[in-house]
Amino acid sequence: MFENGGRLICACSETFVDLFPNSISYKKYAYAFAIISFLIGNVGLTQIISLAIPILMLLYPLTITIILLTFLAPLFNGRQAVYFITTVFALIAAIGDMLNTLPEFLGQAAWVQQTVGVYKMLPFFDLGMGWVVPSAIGFVLGLIYIAVVKLREVRVMNICVTGGAGFIGSHLVDALINEGHKVMVIDNLSTGCRDFVNSKADFVEMDIRDKELAAKMAEFKPEYVFHEAAQTMVPESMKDPAFDCDVNLLGLINVLNACRSVGVKKIIMPSSAAVYGDLDTLPLTETMAGQPSSFYGLTKLTTESYLRIYHEAFGLPYICFRYANVYGPRQGNGGEGGVISIFCERLQAHKDISIFGDGEQTRDFVYVDDVVAANMAALHKPDLVGVINVSTERGTSLNKLVAQFKKIVDHEFNVHYEEARQGISNTRY
After folding, report:
1. Which residues have C-beta within 8 Å of that of residue 114, sequence separation ≥ 6?
2. CATH 3.40.50.720 fits 158-327+367-393, yes or no
3. Are 63 and 97 in contact (CB under 8 A)?
């Protein structure tokens, strides 16, 4: 028997060395298994189990609680405070389960009996699950704690959003309202929709070129301005460059002067990846010199220079985002950036779609929620200044986009290829 036991110890030691080569040595495993075998053989397995059960009853609730918290982590963004508070409550309850399962010679102590008597008031304690309700309470308290901390972290500010009735602007307003800020929306509704404006925002119907803009801002006293109002359609800029310049440059100057007059801390606004034009180098980086192929791209590139000089000359900080092709709910069907919206609208009406060019031109499509997230991140980084790309760095050709639509649309449709439009870049942006 001793010989067989020795062989078993050797075999177990070899197995563990193979399984965990970077752990302890073979000799140490052999010693450990020999001691364990000695204890079981002399003390008795039943006795060892009776001593181990209280420890298991202490560890089991903690293990289950941590596993459940891991599954629920998306609900609280994995905040450590929730883990800590919930686990503490589970531990306090688990101590009762441990005391209740102590061996008789230990469990008969008066203080143990008194303590267990208190723990028996917990639901499911007699089932060995007295930790369930306390853990749930700890979880709820953890959620409340992080909610309170978050409210304290976010300082309520007055924020102005021009173009807040438009596609990106209205989503941005929703995010600002949800964070607790007071928001004023300025929009002339030329392309925006009044119904898109969050009901909790103050709405002012006004053109950004209006000379009364500064006075209106002075009444509201915004700390930050998100300037989303603009002429955004590339074809229109080629048809009427004067109007494009009037809105995107003279309108911008009016906004910048208003910001200066009311002491705005920072202006955050979009440029466009259209500033790059037809550059052959990919990926496109912020340091590259742009060669716009449209007046829209030119005004956006000029916008960046105005922001830089206003910052250097007048101390007005800025962040300017070069958006790729943004898509999502509330998007209109105008301009190059709205290709997904245009396709969706036509396919919903069971109409064919048109592609200007051969369809191999690529675009970087970025979802509107990701663009809003970038803006919100900029709001909370007061020292960040400059031009930043907002994209996925992944190009999708229009032909590939059509192929995806054919997979999800429940009816047949035709694609018509037409002559490429002036000012529309073939470069991925």
Report:
1. none
2. yes
3. no
Name the token pair of 162: 């021009």
The residue among 391 and 40 whose pLDDT is bigger is 391
Q: Which residue has the tokens 């208190």?
A: 118
The dihedral built from the CA positions of residue 23, 27, 31 and 33, taken in this order, carries a sign that is positive
- Measured on CA atoms in the order 37, 39, 40, 42, is the torsion positive or negative? positive
Query: pLDDT digits over 329-347, tens only?
Result: 888 765 445 788 788 888 8
Yes or no: say if 373 and 392 are a contact pair by the CB < 8 Å rule: no
d(C-alpha 303, C-alpha 48), whole Å: 77
Element (H, E) at 318: strand 318-323
List phi, psi (to 5°) of 2: -60, -40
Angle at 387 between CA 386 and CA 393, to 5 degrees: 140
Instruction: In whole angstroms, give the CA distance from residue 63 to residue 40.
Output: 26
What's the CA gap between 378 and 196, in Å, rounded?
Answer: 23
Given 296, 310, 323, 327, which residue is catalytic? 296
Catalytic status, residue 276: no
Measured CA to CA, the distance from residue 245 to residue 306 in angstroms comes to 13
Instruction: Give domain limits for the chain.
Output: 1-43, 50-152, 158-327+367-393
The answer to whether residues 267 and 318 touch, using CB atoms and an 8 Å cutoff, is: yes
pLDDT digits (tens, 9 = 90+) for 99-153: 888 877 777 888 888 888 888 888 988 888 888 999 999 999 999 988 887 766 6
Cα–Cα dist 119/100, whole Å: 9
382 phi/psi in degrees, rounded to 5: -65, -25
Rounded to the nearest angstrom, the gap between the alpha carbon of residue 360 and the centroid of all alpha carbons in its chain is 31
pLDDT digits (tens, 9 = 90+) for 230-266: 998 888 899 999 999 999 999 999 999 999 999 999 9
Task: Tell me if 133 sits within 8 A of 65, measured CB to CB.
Answer: no
58, 98 contact by CB (below 8 A): yes
Mean of the per-residue pLDDT values for the chain?
Answer: 85
